Amino acid sequence: MRREIEEIPGVVANFLDSSAPVLDATAAALRSRDPALVATVARGSSDHACAYLKYAIELTLGLPVASIGPSIASIYGKELKLANSATIAVSQSGKSPDIVGMAQSARRSGAISIAITNTASSPLAEASDFTIDLHAGVEQSVAATKTFATSVVAGLALIARWSGDTALAAAVGDLPNSLARAVACDWSEMITALDGHSALYVLGRGPGFAIANEAALKFKETCNIQAESYSAAEVMHGPVAIVTKGYPVLGLAARDAAEGSVADMTHKLAGQGALAFLTSDRAGAARRLPFAPTGHPITDPLSLIVSFYGFVEALSRHRGFNPDLPVALKKVTETL
Fold this sequence. Notes:
Helix content is 47%, strand content 14%. It contains 13 helices and ten strands. The strands form two sheets. It has a five-stranded parallel beta sheet with strand order 2-1-3-4-5, with helices on both faces. A five-stranded parallel beta sheet has the order 7-6-8-9-10, with helices on both faces.
């Protein structure tokens, strides 16, 4: 896992160098088709990547994005009316029957079907009109890191071309440098601070909420910590009741319009006694964690998860686990 985290900047650079033709072709098809809706299909970390892309598409292109449960096709056998839509299915292996089945169903319904996968010859690729290969190399760690980051980059690179957003394109092009700085961020002070704790909250908002979801999953996968992710706007609607003195909170604030919301809530919980950490320079009661700005609000949250990955791998080892062999998990999960 540690090796693959450190590979992320290079893998992203390789993807950007290798994938320009298919990204250009897919973006041209999307502009020609001009879909009224984008639907995403994924599970696990790939679904968190889709949640990130949902915010990016809505903020950049103004198109609504819906997440479709793969069981609609695989278990319930229902065909959705997707003729005037684009479907983006994300899967590292491209093998899970329910993801493949939903992609096939969307294509039959008339959607332009796009696969983002690390296995270009997979069943998912065969079920799709366009396949964006991550070119990430074999990912051996059960907990996905480099494939998650590159899946997000693939989607953002496509969105930049589709929308013609030159500022976003420039920020995506510079991500290998930004993510190299993110890998170097040191969050080690949080490792011993979590000694004795088996539960925590992770807060985010907008694309940062998708990152909070991914961070919470990694806490569970590698550290056996019952981490729950919440929007900074939602945590006060009930979940705050269990934030007693010393309860850990991680606020993942990016340099975007939601930074103030996440920072204010994290500082507020710290003021109420929470053991709170925050990726922001906004002053308050929470402890500051270092971060690597990317220069664009859409790409900025991605650097946070790369910094987090290095921290959670070290935390897992500190707590006596092997992050490369999480209990009861396997690399490829095929669900129906």
